[in-house]
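Quick question about two entries, pasted in order.
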Amino acid sequence: MINRFINNGNGYTKKDPGIRNMPVFKKGLFCRLISYIKLRNSINMSTGENANAGLSGDPYENFRSLLQQSIVFPSEYIFKFIIKAEEEKITALKSMFANASATISENSSSAGKYKSFTVQVLVQDEEEVIAYYKQVSKIDSVIML
């Protein structure tokens, strides 16, 4: 018996003459991810953009325009980071926000291998937000949320 899959618009369905159409993927995270990728690819194709087109320009340009549209500056901005629970990485992160009189809260993972940080700081404009992200990105294996 050969399994054939068809796209019925709501996801992929297993088509077998002996069995009624059975959904293979339910509406979960995987389906949403596939839908997002399809939507993103269709937007790139419809606008004529290449997937590598943004590599030569500023990678923060889209983020900058989103900040300009959604936040009135100066404003309190909340940064969230996850790093390995290594002392030199923790002190590097804290030192980046030391001069800004930021409020920093931290939580450890259940195994104690990682630490999450929430940093609340007053920023003057979107360039300052991007500058903080660029500074923190220099820390090895940091996850910026």
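Here is the second entry:
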Amino acid sequence: MTTIGYIVGSWAEGSVNQKLARTLVAQAPEDTQMVDLDIRELPLYGRHLDEDFPQVMQDFKDRASAVDGLLIVTPEHNQSFPAAVKNAVDILTRPGGTSVLGGMPVTIAGTSPGRFGTISSQSQLRQFLPMLGVRFMGSPNLAVGGAGDVFAEDGTADAQTTERARKFIAAFVDFVRAG
């Protein structure tokens, strides 16, 4: 059984990225366990916390270190990824010398109402994540544009997006297993 942890950078009511995450979970191969690494309760990281690292942050790191691969589902805010995503990544690498990301397979997906999906936010994440020692899956990518036309009110994705999600998560699971 391969275990994929996922972080969703938006927890807004009706979030299209929450819907995309649910689609990816539903499309994961049968022999894959998908684990929600919820970031909603994480405090804002600051270096002053390294000396007395909060338990909620340590628990998050422990849950992340137990997975075989990490999927980041990110929205795009003002042509960048949201602070919540960066905060989660920072926590996974702190205090210094205790990063759980070294060697971890990582990929990114996202959706937005705009035509280009989350290309800008994903591009920025692709710039710095490899510097943290992750094993990054470069392709395929999943940046879904026009989210308002892709997801039904009940959160289900259209057939094309569902198929793209199936291929994407299957490719990531294969990438993780190839280790």
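Reply: The first strand starts at residue 2 and ends at 8. The chain has six helices and six strands. Hope that helps.
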